[in-house]
Structure formats: C-alpha cells, structure tokens
Amino acid sequence: MKFLLTLTFIFSFSAITVAQESTEPEFQPNVAEYYVSVFKEGKDMDDMMRWAEKWNEWADKSDALKDYRAALLVPYYHSGEQKHDFVWLGISPNPEAHFKGNDHWFNNGQKLLEQLNTILETGNQATYTWQRTVSETPSGQAAYVVYSDCKLGEGVTATEFYDAYYAYAKAAKKRGDIAGRKMIFPSSGVPSTWDYDFVQAVTTSTIADYGKNWSDFWSQANNDTMPELKALSDLGGSCDNERTYSIIPVRN
User: Fold this and answer.
1) Which domains, ranges and CATH numbers included, belong to the chain?
2) How far out from the chain centre does Cα 196 lie?
3) Pick from 112, 108, 200, 184: which is nearest to 150 by CA?
4) Is 11 exposed, middle or buried (CB count within 10 Å of its CB: 0-12, 13-18, 19+)?
5) Cβ contacts of residue 148 below 8 Å, gap of 6+?
6) pLDDT digits (tens, 9 = 90+) for 25-77
7) Which of 148, 135, 165 is CA-nearest to residue 234?
8) What CA–CA distance (Å, rounded) separates 135 from 36?
9) CA 99 to CA 188: how far, in whole Å?
C-alpha cells in the first residue's frame, strides 16, 4: 500500500517564520496529522461538513486547539489503489501545541467521535509528520497540490537537500514561479511498505494556476539557465507516485 499524502491547501496556513539572518531559511518546521477517510454506506461529504461545523464550534471553546488548522483533502488525480473519499489534514506549529490538542480531543471529544463514527469507516491510516515549508504561493494560500514520494541521493542529507531546494525556490520566484513547496517527513503511522525519505508537496493558489505555472515557469526552467536548479539536480535522488488533491477548509 503506497503512502497516501497529497496535500492541497485552499485556505491560508500561516507560515511559521522567525526573524533570522537573510542567509538562513525563513521557514521553521511544523507538524501535521493526516487521517485517511472512507464514508460509510449512505454517507457523503454533506454529512461530514455538518459534523465538521460542530467540531469547529467545539474546538473554539478551548485554547488547546487555538493554533490548530484543519482541512479536508479531496482526491483529484490518483491511482485508486488505496480507497478513500478524503483525507483530514490538521497542522500545528509544534509538537507541544499538537499533542495538547490531541489530549483535549481524547479526553473531551467522545460525543463528537461517536457521531463521526456513524459517518466514517474506522481503522484507516492515520499518520503524524514533521514538515517544512520551502516556498509559498504569492497569496500564502493554495487550492491544489501535487504530492510525490521522494528518495534522497546517495550520501545527501535532508538538510542539504532542503537548503538547495530553498535556494532554487527563491531563484524561481524571481523568474515568475508561483508555486508553494513543502518537504514532509512521516514519523508515526507509516505503512511498512513505504520506502522513501520524504514526501514532496507542490501547491498553487488555484487549480488553474498549476497549469499556468507550467507555461510561465516550469516549461522554461533548465539547468543551463538556472544554476540553482543545476545544484539541486546534482544532488540526485528521485520522486515517484504523483497524486493530487483539492481542498475544503475546516478551520483557519
């Protein structure tokens, strides 16, 4: 079973940034959880959105989830090998905030969980990850994402790849690139057959912008005209299993 992570952010995820020297990457790691979800017979997205509205009202009543952002990721182009109707994505700025929210849900969300279990099948994949933004869309928002499972080149560390990827993204932006990018590192809940180093996520503010970026930037970028792209390519590695999602915002 392939690792199913295809993020798309139609709503704004606040970038976790800090004041740093200009020579250092601006984005700091955050954490996220992904719940692969399948509707029970007779249930659909309307049922899920009604439940999500109740959950959001419940979440507003506690500081435990004040920094938690959530969305439903709806599959667009995918292989169909792992049956699912959507993925619940939740993002927190750091592990302390995240597990504080988990604790609140575990101890106080029983009624909502019972309601959710009447809508969704249980026992599906749930994955906890670290992730780090490489670049953002011009608006800081996204409606479409392309995920890929990636392996690092021999002897290349994740930090070395991130630094090169960040430099490439900065140079690409100056050439008209409008894509956001993340490197995602699954930690818990990873299928035993998943044999990769990280998941790459590439986002655009709209679905149409993904096609536009191909015309305006990706189709023209090459190693001869972009030394940053050549430096990234020289690190080696590969990415496979592309799949895409659109998104429904739940909690901004």
Assistant:
1) 30-251 (3.30.70.100)
2) 16
3) 200
4) middle
5) 199, 200, 202, 239, 240, 241, 242
6) 588 899 999 999 999 999 999 999 999 999 999 999 999 999 999 999 999 99
7) 165
8) 26
9) 13
The secondary structure of 150-167 as a DSSP string is: EEPPTT--HHHHHHHHHH
Q: Residue 60 in contact with residue 125, Cβ under 8 Å? A: no
Residue 49, both tokens: 């959105």
- How far, in whole angstroms, is CA 222 from its chain's centroid? 26
Phi-psi region of 116 (alpha: psi -120 to 50; beta: other; left: phi over 0): alpha
- Percentages helix, strand, coil for the chain (3-state, rounded to 5) are 30, 30, 40
Give the separation between CA 188 and CA 179, rounded to whole angstroms.
28
Q: What is the pLDDT of residues 104-118, one digit of tens each?
A: 999 999 999 999 999
The model's pTM: 0.87
Tokens for 81, please give them: 């090998």
Rounded Cα distance between 102 and 33, Å, is 10
Of 94, 95, 69, 92, nearest in space to 12 by CA:
69
- Length of the chain, please? 252
Neighbouring residues of 54: CB distance < 8 A, sequence distance ≥ 6 = 112, 115
